[in-house]
Amino acid sequence: MRTFFWKNSTDEQRLAALQRPATLAKGDLSAKVAEILAAVKSGGDEALRSLTAKFDQVELSALEVTSEEFAAARKSVGQGAREALEHAARNIEKFHLAQIPVNQAIETQPGVTCERQYRPIVRVGLYVPGGSACLPSTVLMLGIPSRLAGCELRVLVTPPRKDGSVDPFILEAARICRIDKVFKVGGAQAIAALAYGTESIPKVDKIFGPGNAYVTEAKEQVASQSASAIDMPAGPSEVLVVADANADPVFVAADLLSQAEHGPDSQVVLVTDSEEMVTKVQAEIAAQLATLPRASIATQALEKSLSIVVNSVAEAIAVSNQYAPEHLILQVDMAARYKDRILNAGSVFLGPWSPESAGDYASGTNHVLPTYGYARSYSGLSVDSFLKQITFQELTEKGIKALGPVIETLATIEGLDAHCQAVTLRLKALGSRETL
Amino acid sequence: MRTFFWKNSTDEQRLAALQRPATLAKGDLSAKVAEILAAVKSGGDEALRSLTAKFDQVELSALEVTSEEFAAARKSVGQGAREALEHAARNIEKFHLAQIPVNQAIETQPGVTCERQYRPIVRVGLYVPGGSACLPSTVLMLGIPSRLAGCELRVLVTPPRKDGSVDPFILEAARICRIDKVFKVGGAQAIAALAYGTESIPKVDKIFGPGNAYVTEAKEQVASQSASAIDMPAGPSEVLVVADANADPVFVAADLLSQAEHGPDSQVVLVTDSEEMVTKVQAEIAAQLATLPRASIATQALEKSLSIVVNSVAEAIAVSNQYAPEHLILQVDMAARYKDRILNAGSVFLGPWSPESAGDYASGTNHVLPTYGYARSYSGLSVDSFLKQITFQELTEKGIKALGPVIETLATIEGLDAHCQAVTLRLKALGSRETL
Fold first, then answer.
1. Which of A48, A256, B237, B354 is in the most buried spot, having the most CB atoms within 10 Å?
2. Least Cα separation, residue B116 to chain A (angstroms)
């Protein structure tokens, strides 16, 4: 971890310090993904099977997980794990339940009623990564808000394991979220199936969930073809920890490491008003790293990471706002009093007893969050992500009579005569009726 | 307008009938836009000036509109126009004011508090098209919700007229929305300025507003570079009118025409359970068309458009849900009773006295809406479009003690040991404190 002194730096140096590491050059990734998308679009299930054989080394007959497989998974998951998943699900549900919005109707002037109503996105696709890690927590984070939103069709896709099965924890989490359509397909080919539909897998209106570079590129390509909307752009995961002189370096180091172990491209940033804290945290990192199985991944992530020394906690928050972290941890005295100052962040963890892993799993907040500075303009997943809004307006005779002349004036200013005429003809009809 | 009989058609024919006309092939548009973006990124204001000279045939000295220009615009706009703009603004404000969301805090379990807070997107860019039409109504639709959201910096860009001025109605609308930074630049170069920033024009976090093919392509390119987020993907404007046998063909024709005059690529669709209505409406269209200055544009749009004959209003709504129109007009008996059945649409107009132009200008709803089927997964602009959500969590000692074991179990399942350790170290610290 490099140390950067905010005070003695120019604006340009500061901007450069907060720059995310460039993501890997796409190289021929775009072309490869485009080829996979085209193969699935024309080849359907058969293409999915052959791509799964090629990339996952699995020969599948049925793509959909059967109820027998769900039942077997349920048995193989121990009671402790099931209870932990159910506990997390309860907290996530409780927090997301409060997000269900209410419809609004407003009479903007007598006889003119405008309304905003929410509707679930009808068909949604949920991508859950496989590969080295198995992520049942992601199933909960996608499955619970989509259920609360009332989406009619929820399709979960996830890559099969080498033996052709799906991880039982994933299936158990899917059962808890009442997702009954799960397909054994991953990678760009899974995104293609959701965007275009195949014989087995229904086409969806919006695709959610994290994934590797292939999945991310596939999501971007299907979105740009307007084949399917996507949840948000993706970048490497990241944390920014603000620590004051009284923070516990053991906790700070543990939180930085729990982000660093995600992947070699993860970024961790420490911002502190205590130069001593930097030294203490670095020593702690070294000590804790020794005990971690994923130490080599974490070490790679730490190499690109940064400690920033500032003058005050307020300045640290300002630095954080400029960086716009996915996760922000405040290990400072009376952390909650800084809430209002936080302008750009995905999810925020307040005080010593709120590690990032609490929000990753079980506090109740969603862990699908904007990365790579997108927190300046995007929000994490919520029930809203699975809804859209429709506006309605109804004018009475009185309403169009009062508002009509305003519309006519504005349409005339804009030179849109048919817009004007649609009102004029109605006012005439009302006028002639009154004359009768 | 072609007539299509829903009843006697196969699912495939129906799908084909509802297909939007393909948008024009991009050809070298992408490359041209990329060139403009690169020129502005490296050349700043100087590049903006030379591109404005090239594309708008205007030599500008200052890019920003001065307070003198605002004052002159105010004078040149007549009282009638000003009052119409202010009237529309009041209705739009009233409807959008109700959209300001409230923060939520939930104790998901004792000692675990989760919160969702809204924050304005700090810096936003508002694009208002120029060219043939002058669109002060679009200024209101972007300016009012961004003001209500509390965005700190709102920058409006719009192409200059041939004499180097900005249309006075646009400036007057900007004044009403309290936008004080207006720049005389349009096209892809304006989007580049907002995405990268120049000496005069500040970089923004999200860009809003409609535009021509260059503007749309530029928005897509800056979004894919993660230089700036954008409001929504864009396609040609469209309306679907559902009319029953008792609808007034004069009103139906007027509403179809007021959409068709937008541009030659506009799409208008009539869905009715009365074959006779099709004939009546076509006759009315011919009659009204004769009086319209923009008849040639409307005629081109109508050539690609469609009448669909169905069995019932309920079936018409089902067809509309499949098409997912930007604007949906229900000219049927007791239109409001169908509201709940409408699943996919941008904005809906109920009954004979609610023409589309009411919502385009002054009813209170927003006219920046999802086109091209995007209404399946996107919403029209609202105050929410200018906000993002940040989640917060704070665990007390009691909270982490109760929830810690759940987090440890889930982290272990996922093989993320540092995530587990961040909790374990905290539980140990609490344990040893108690032992003391």
1. A256
2. 9
CB contact under 8 A, A415 and B84: no
Q: For residue range B382-420, what is the model confidence (pLDDT) as tens digits? A: 999 999 999 999 999 999 999 999 999 999 999 999 999
B327 is catalytic: yes
* Chain centre to alpha carbon of residue B144: 13
Residue A69 burial (CB count, 10 A): 18
Report the SS3 class of residue A436.
Answer: coil
Whole-model pTM?
0.96
Chain B residues inside the 8 Å CB shell of A433: none
The CA-based diameter of chain B, rounded to the nearest angstrom, is 93
Q: How far is B338 from chain A (nearest CA, A)?
A: 11
Nearest to B87 among A94, A104, A406 (CB): A406
Residue (of A326, A328, A305, A324) closest to A243 by Cα position: A328
What ipTM did this prediction achieve? 0.96
Residues of A in contact with B396 (CB under 8 A): 353
pLDDT digits (tens, 9 = 90+) for B199-212: 999 999 999 999 98
The yes-or-no answer on residue B68 being catalytic is no
Based on C-alpha coordinates, what's the Rg of chain A?
Answer: 26
